[in-house]
Write a structure and sequence with these properties.
Length: about 550
């Protein structure tokens, strides 16, 4: 049986005018700022007007460690949202925007797949409403103002060897990872080493997604540390006097983007912080507004549960006072087989023993998520070549872990295929009491917070923190940053820092390479192993196959 591609399915969808989608949520047309006919931003005035309404139930979708076999976390998020609406519930979806870099590289888009997609798919995966361009511009403005300040006398006494603010571009471009800036003579400034990250790794992106409103946005931007003086005292963005102009550039970007699913159900697609160097969740404004407009909000966290869900629960929920009612953990039979040692080219063959071996990874995630005090259910994202014997093996394993698993066929059938999952998730959300709590308190010392995550979530023997890094953590504590949460940056492919170590490794250690402070966003970044904040393109990038056909339609985007 042949199946249509994601873009073919998305292109054939019957979209409703965005005003109709907004009306379903009770958003008057005058409070929608349309970008064409099928997407719009929601006005701050409307958002302020619903702040006192009661919250709906928050449902977090996360996954096992990602594999080349694919897990379908976003697809399941969309499918579950459609399924909840299918059974008569009032549900919304909240996901992140896609970065151009991965779209033209190897990862692809971030709009779901099959018959569980958010549309307009092409727009969402390309320029969309310009939010990422605004973030890039705001970030670049600060970069320019730092070097301009140094050029015109450096009144703040910035040590040019200790400018920590890097530049950004929303593209995978390894050649820009490390550069020398201001070459070319006196008129171009003072030469210094610099570098580029991808836009989604910018602290401005993280701040946009954690800010409560424009005033909070400007305060957080002003609190960013951009450089240090020779005495190691910090220089803030507000010292450069860039925070006001940056906020002006972001005044529209902070407004959530309203779109729809293939089944015309409402979705907010807003923000896109890297799930390694940042917290990997959609914007706080979008999530909180959705909770006021619907009875159930289905959202996701980036990468696997050891990274994305841990940060969602320990950072986003802590800062926003959110409490998820249920967590949906996505797994696939194919990924279980890969975790059990099967090569990608052999995944189409039944292998129950490999499935059972691979379930160890799933078991660790279940136990980790339960430790936050939230009910956990496993969604088996169905692939057409999965066999019943393989499915039964996963179902039995999940039952042995004190949880339950439900097969969902939303990729193939849309909401018709996710009804069982939607029914059970809503039952749990409505009947079971979530006793959510982060796994470490604010007042715990920073080094202990790192050890807690490494031991409890990664199952490591310890985090290896040398004296230089330990002293830096103590200095931040003395400066008043000790209550900040930890944002771990490590490979998404394993519980360990070795991306090739699949399954449920134990007996390993987590070497901490460096620590960085995101004083504006409000967390400490802990870099472990080899983590790149500027990805590179693969040998054959997806961009080589993306083009306009004779009808002016985009081909090759996925």
């Amino acid at each position: 049986m042949s199946y249509k591609s994601d873009i073919e399915i998305a292109r054939s969808a019957e979209k409703k005018p965005i005003q109709e989608v907004g009306a379903h949520l009770g958003i008057p047309a005058e409070h929608l700022l349309p970008y064409g006919h099928d997407k719009a931003k929601v006005s701050q005035e409307f958002i302020n007007g619903v702040k006192d309404k009661e919250n709906g139930k928050l449902i977090l979708v996360t996954a096992i460690n990602p594999t080349p076999a694919g897990e379908g976390k976003t697809t399941t998020t969309v499918g579950l949202g459609d399924g909840l609406n299918k059974i008569g519930k009032n549900a919304m979806i909240c996901i992140r925007e896609a970065s151009l870099g991965p779209n033209f590289g190897m990862k692809g888009g971030a709009a779901g797949g099959g018959h569980a997609q958010v549309i307009p798919m092409e727009d969402m995966n390309l320029h969309f409403t310009g939010d990422f361009h605004a973030i890039t511009s705001a970030h670049s403005l600060l970069s320019a103002m730092i070097d301009n300040h140094i050029y015109w006398g450096n009144d703040l006494g910035i040590d040019t060897r200790r400018v920590v603010w890097r530049r950004v571009v929303d593209m995978n471009d390894r050649a820009l990872r490390q550069i020398t800036a201001s070459l070319g003579g006196i008129s171009n400034g003072f030469p210094r080493e610099a570098g580029f990250d991808i836009t989604v790794a910018s602290e401005v992106m993280a701040i946009l997604c954690l800010a409560k409103d424009l005033n909070d946005l400007q305060t957080k931007l002003g609190n960013m540390i951009v450089a240090y003086r020779r005495d190691r005292s910090p220089v803030f963005c507000r010292d450069i006097k860039a925070d006001g102009a940056m906020t002006v550039l972001l005044k529209d970007a902070i407004k959530p983007n309203l779109v729809q699913t293939l089944e015309n159900n409402p979705a907010f697609v807003h923000g896109g912080p890297f799930a390694n160097i940042a917290h990997g969740c959609n914007s706080l404004i979008a999530t909180q507004t959705a909770l006021k407009l619907s009875d159930y909000v289905v959202t996701e966290a980036g990468f696997g549960a050891d990274l994305g869900a841990e940060k969602f629960l320990n950072i986003k929920c802590r800062k926003a006072g959110l409490s998820p009612a249920v967590i949906v953990l996505v797994a696939t039979i194919r990924a279980m087989k890969m975790n059990g040692g099967v090569a990608k080219e052999d995944l189409g063959q039944e292998n129950v023993s490999a499935v059972k071996s691979g379930c160890a990874n799933l078991g660790c995630h279940i136990e980790n998520l339960k430790s936050f005090g939230v009910p956990v259910i496993v969604a088996i994202n169905h692939f057409v070549k999965d066999t019943q014997n393989e499915i039964d093996a996963v179902m039995q394993f999940v039952t042995s872990q004190g949880s339950e698993a439900i097969v969902s066929k939303h990729w193939e059938f849309g909401s018709e295929g996710s009804v069982d999952l939607a029914k059970r998730v809503s039952e749990i959300a409505d009947s079971e009491v979530s006793d959510f709590a982060p796994i470490y308190p604010d007042e715990m010392p920073l080094a202990e917070k790192i050890q807690t995550i490494c031991k409890r979530i990664y199952r490591a023997d310890e985090a290896l923190i040398d004296k230089k890094i330990y002293d830096q953590l103590k200095q931040w504590e003395e400066q008043g940053y000790g209550d900040l949460p930890i944002c771990m940056a490590k490979t998404q492919y394993s519980f360990s820092t070795d991306p090739n170590l699949r399954g449920a490794p134990t007996g390993h250690t987590v070497p901490v390479r460096e620590v960085r402070i995101s004083a504006g966003a409000g967390f400490i970044v802990v870099v472990c192993g080899e983590i790149m904040t500027m990805p590179g393109l693969p040998r054959v990038p997806a961009a080589e196959s993306i083009y306009l056909n004779k009808f002016g339609e985009i081909e090759g985007l996925f």
